[in-house]
Design a protein that fits this description.
157 residues; alpha+beta; nine-stranded antiparallel β-sheet; 3 helices; 17% helix; 42% strand; globular
Length: 157
Amino acid sequence: MGWNTSALFVQGSSTAEAVALLAAAQLEPGRLVGADEATSGLADGVLFAAEAGGWVQVWDPAMEFAPICEPPGTALTVVFASVASSYAFTLFEDGEVVRELVYADAEPVVDAGTPLPVEATVEIPSWGPDEDFVWAVIEAVTGTGYQDSQQFEVWRR
């Protein structure tokens, strides 16, 4: 499956606080969607938020806000753009970038900060890093990965 989405993961935040870091949005009360729709939908004007393991994750399918977000505290932004063969993540600690890695067409175009230990453990396919690489980073940083049963709040921009 090709992923084309982006997300912000924020440690120790409420869903409302994390969503506000990306865009002004209104919660659609009582509306929940599953992980598949939240993480891989092509919805425009919508953000999807959930909390797991002390981290809030906000999925931005339109890839408008998460890739340019500069959150305070400890946070991780990720981009999955399989159509363009681009994958990226930025790790923030105390609001400062400590690691940023962007791949385009299997080549690193941004490589800043000290590599995370997980980066050395992921087997990279011949075509370059893909969504498995990004998910490994998410799991290593947040302690949680893709959870089929996770329910997400819907926030309309």
